[in-house]
Specification:
heterodimer; A: 378 residues; alpha+beta; seven-stranded antiparallel sheet; 17 strands; globular; disordered N terminus; disordered C terminus; B: mainly alpha; 5 helices; rod-shaped
């Protein structure tokens, strides 16, 4: 009873300040100011708003398969969980391994390999839910968005499920500056084409998308139309007891309501392509694509992801008619009333290193924090 | 002759120079203390009085300007505003919320919402958390603008006084998070 009361004081503890290679903590903020990957440099930052951090992220650089012959490159993942942290953590632990497995089988990186990795991760998670169905049925109501970028052989693959977003900053001589180019396709019911897609997939269901709290939601429950997890909206076997009624869909369904299929986009990298900003929707609800690109373009690389997070928090504070310095006093959990969990990964594309093979020997693997409470427990 | 004349000229120049010099600079110190204390002090004290008046008048203008919203540059005068006064009567400027506080709107459906300034630390209190949960059920997390709490103002004030009492008696311990 008493111990949880003392937890907050652990937050600033020096022992939890993991050394620079694995990032640092500052209260609810985790950040890695600058690191280098095969194709350039990167910066990462995560701010926690939920009681348990639901966002996860990772950057892997070096071999993308278990073969020595390659392929080599950089893998970036941003996973925005909902209903709990379990699915996003599961993806963080398994998706890259699955990608490596299929890349080894096919001896290449391709849209097909990435898609297979997504679907395999989904299947593994659903079997995990099935295994723990009796002791932990609420696992069936947990899900996650999943945004992945793979840079390999001068190509950039973007695969997305849900509403995270990646924006490319491209130097244009005409405009004098850097223009924003959104590369990801989002699956949020607030987008008309997504609602149309849902309606065409479920022609018999007039209630497939519902406006609630002035926000479009699939079945009046969830904003995204595609996700990993959310077993109770994929298979009827999970939409029943012992899952609590408040997490269940009242009517039975025959076809899965949500899909785990990623939208994949392939982009040939150009010397004008300067950087990529991967972020969960928590950032984009406060900053526009161009605003974010302008910030990255006009400030030093070191700590740029943290700067983007701060810019978003300042706007969040302004919207709630308070000061940024006061927002920092608000505990996790309650913070969710002010902003969502926010994950930002900025990846710089240095043309000199895109086709370089000398740096292949180095392997970089960095994961975002697991959040304040889970670290305090361990 | 020429030599003596020259000497005299030098003297004259010297005395003239000294006269000018005395009149303008060095005698000031002596005169102030001894011979003419008033004629020198007076302008200085007058200057001091003048600046003092200017300052008080400027203050008065600022104050009346901020309350009546007459002066366009009133934002600069925020420093002289009284704490109790609501500084954002017509234009909601978030900057004007006092440090450590934030604005929330309290009221019931279809009624008038009252703007209340709440200390930010109250938000971490479990009693306040209950109000926030109600707000979330009613409006969702993505409600644009300031937080709106759907309850009666009397109910809200009751919660505020309970938090205030709790703070003074049981202090921080009990309401640091339970989960």
């Amino acid at each position: 009873m008493v111990r949880p009361c003392w937890k907050p004081s652990v937050e600033g503890d020096g022992s939890r300040r993991g050394g620079d290679p694995n990032g640092r903590f500052d209260g609810l903020l985790w950040y890695k100011d600058l690191g280098s990957h095969v194709n350039g440099e990167f910066s990462m930052a995560v701010i926690q708003a939920n009681g348990l951090l639901e966002d996860q992220c990772q950057l892997e650089s070096g071999p993308l398969s278990s073969l020595k012959s390659g392929p080599y490159g950089t893998f970036i993942g941003v996973y925005d969980g909902h209903g709990g942290p379990e699915t996003s953590r599961f993806i963080n632990d398994n998706l890259f391994l699955n990608l490596k497995k299929f890349a080894s089988e096919h001896q290449e990186i391709s849209a097909n390999v990435i898609k297979k990795a997504f679907l395999a991760t989904e299947e593994e998670f659903l079997s995990c839910v099935r295994q723990q169905w009796l002791e932990k049925p609420q696992l069936a109501s947990v899900g996650s968005c999943c945004l992945v970028g793979v840079i390999c052989d001068g190509l950039l693959y973007i695969a997305n499920v849900g509403d995270s977003r990646v924006v490319l900053g491209r130097a244009e001589k005409v405009v004098r500056g850097v223009t924003a180019l959104q590369l990801s396709t989002e699956h949020n019911a607030s987008i008309e084409s997504v609602r149309d897609e849902l309606q065409s997939l479920h022609p018999d269901d007039s209630q497939i998308v519902v406006l609630k709290h002035k926000v479009w939601r699939v079945k009046g429950i969830i904003q995204v139309s595609r996700s990993i997890g959310d077993a109770y909206l994929k298979k009827s076997e999970f939409n029943k007891e012992p899952l609590l009624a408040k997490f269940r869909l009242s009517e039975p369904f025959s076809k899965p309501i949500l899909s785990p299929e990623p939208s994949i986009f392939i982009h040939k990298l150009n010397p004008k392509d300067q950087f990529l900003i991967f972020a969960s929707d928590g950032l984009w609800e406060h900053l526009s694509n161009q605003e974010a690109v302008d910030i990255v373009h006009s400030y030093p690389r070191n700590g740029i992801a943290k700067r983007l997070v701060k810019a978003a928090l300042k706007l969040a504070a302004k919207k709630r008619e308070m000061r940024y310095s006061d927002l920092k006093k608000i505990d996790r959990g309650v913070r969710r009333h002010f902003h969502d969990d926010i994950t930002v990964v900025v990846v710089f594309l240095d043309p000199s290193s895109v086709n370089r093979s000398s740096s292949r020997s180095s392997t970089i693997s960095i994961r975002g924090s697991r959040g304040v409470s889970s670290l305090a427990k361990s | 002759m020429g030599k003596i004349r020259g000497f005299l000229l030098k003297h004259r120049v010297n005395t003239l120079f000294r006269c000018v010099f005395r009149r303008h600079r060095s005698p000031v110190g002596y005169h102030r203390l001894n011979q003419h204390p008033f004629c020198r002090v007076k302008p200085i004290s007058r200057l001091i009085n003048w600046t003092h008046n200017l300052r008080t008048k400027a203050k008065a203008i600022c104050r009346s300007g901020s309350s009546k919203n007459l002066i366009p540059g009133r934002v600069k005068c925020d420093g002289y505003m009284q704490i109790g006064r609501d500084p954002v009567e017509e234009k909601p400027e978030p900057v004007a919320v006092p440090k450590g506080h934030m604005a929330v709107y309290v009221g019931q459906k279809d009624g008038d919402f009252q703007r209340v300034l709440v200390p930010v630390i109250y938000f971490n209190h479990p009693l306040f958390g209950q109000l926030l949960r109600e707000a979330e059920e009613e409006f969702g997390y993505n409600h644009p603008g300031a937080i709106t709490i759907p309850c009666r103002i009397s109910e809200f004030e009751h919660v505020q006084t309970r938090i205030k009492q709790g703070r003074t008696t049981r202090k921080l311990l009990t309401w640091k998070r339970q989960n």
